[in-house]
């Protein structure tokens, strides 16, 4: 090859190297800048927020929880031969610890033998359809529920499908609110403000969260179909609406990290966040625009522990349980105008 050919090869090689360097530089700029960095977050911002209080296991052995890295906030208790397994939509994960403690007080034989999951209702169904097997990171385990709890309509539909056995037992209701960071930096005043350009939102994913249906109903009441379309379509496409990957537990996390300005959640969740001391507040939604949900539970068809399953379902509507729910703004189900 002559000198001219070698020169062309050298030029091409240099150009390729420069291009690859540019790609690497661009990738670094988009991410972690090519070097390991010490965590800068405040540990208390990341779940689990109750510092182990939601774990009903008696013998916890080595406790090794690293927020954001090794953290399983929606799985509670021991999978070593539980005598009652509960699958409950994550709408009241914060109430489960006192509920389980009160239930164990009534039934001491179950102390330390209750396992429960608080994933979104749709994801819990997917786990049930996989025989109760779930994989998180490098760990796979199987646990089959005795009780399933979610919105009343969802529970009734699953009874019709044969996954649950009736009756569906309703026990409390809940209303929506607009969750915001403390101080309300985006100056949110109503549901209509969520449609404004530049307002960043964290919203439950309709693919597996029933609450998205209620939220769309409320958005439509407040601003017509256009508002619902803006929040759940236009803003999703332009990146101003983040759809949660797990459930609305993510919304306060995004708000505290400054990744979102507002998000619609159940009122009970905002109350819990304030009680936990997090910099979270909420904007009430007027009754005319709000949507109420009914929570219900039923025994899973073929449950391994039907006696305890029935006891738990009945316990949820007891005065003891209702008093616990009321701490977080839930109201006892009265069978009136609520929509499941």
UniProtKB/TrEMBL annotation:
Which superkingdom is the protein from? Bacteria
Signal: is it a keyword of this entry?
yes
SUPFAM superfamilies assigned to the protein according to its UniProt record, in alphabetical order: Periplasmic binding protein-like II
Q: Which GO terms describe its biological process?
A: molybdate ion transport
Gene3D superfamilies in the cross-refs:
Periplasmic binding protein-like II
In terms of InterPro entries, this protein maps to:
ModA/WtpA
Cleavable signal peptide = 1-27
Instruction: Give the record's keywords alphabetically.
Output: Signal
Which GO MF term does the entry hold, naming one?
molybdate ion binding
Query: What name has this protein been given in UniProt?
Result: ABC transporter substrate-binding protein
Origin organism lineage: Bacteria, Pseudomonadati, Pseudomonadota, Acidithiobacillia, Acidithiobacillales
């Amino acid at each position: 090859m002559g000198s001219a050919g070698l020169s062309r090869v050298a030029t091409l090689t240099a150009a390729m190297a420069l291009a690859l360097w540019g790609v690497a530089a661009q990738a670094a700029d988009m991410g972690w800048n090519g070097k390991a960095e010490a965590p800068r977050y405040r540990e208390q911002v990341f779940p689990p927020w109750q510092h182990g209080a939601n774990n009903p296991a008696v013998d916890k052995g080595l406790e090794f929880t690293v927020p954001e890295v090794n953290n399983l906030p929606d799985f509670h208790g021991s999978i070593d031969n539980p005598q009652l397994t509960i699958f409950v939509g994550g709408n009241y994960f914060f109430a489960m610890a006192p509920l389980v403690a009160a239930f164990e007080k009534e039934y001491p034989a179950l102390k330390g033998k209750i396992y429960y999951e608080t994933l979104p209702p749709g994801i819990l169904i997917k786990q049930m359809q996989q025989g109760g097997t779930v994989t998180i990171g490098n760990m796979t385990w199987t646990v089959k529920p005795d009780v399933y709890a979610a919105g009343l309509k969802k529970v009734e539909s699953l009874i019709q499908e044969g996954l649950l056995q009736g009756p569906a037992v309703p026990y409390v209701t809940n209303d929506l609110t607009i969750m915001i960071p403390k101080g309300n930096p985006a100056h949110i005043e109503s549901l209509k403000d969520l449609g404004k350009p530049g307002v960043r939102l964290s919203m439950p994913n309709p693919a597996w969260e029933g609450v998205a249906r209620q939220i769309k109903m409320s958005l439509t009441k407040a601003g017509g179909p256009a508002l619902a379309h803006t929040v759940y379509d236009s803003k999703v496409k332009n990146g101003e609406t983040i759809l949660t990957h797990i459930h609305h537990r993510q919304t306060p996390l995004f708000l505290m990290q400054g990744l979102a300005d507002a998000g619609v959640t159940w009122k009970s969740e905002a109350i819990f966040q304030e009680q936990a001391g997090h910099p979270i507040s909420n904007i009430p939604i007027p009754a005319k625009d709000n949507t109420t949900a009914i929570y219900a539970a039923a025994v899973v068809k073929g449950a391994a522990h039907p006696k305890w399953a029935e006891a738990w379902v009945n316990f949820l509507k007891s005065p003891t349980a209702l008093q616990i729910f009321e701490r977080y703004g839930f109201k006892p189900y009265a069978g009136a105008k609520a929509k499941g």
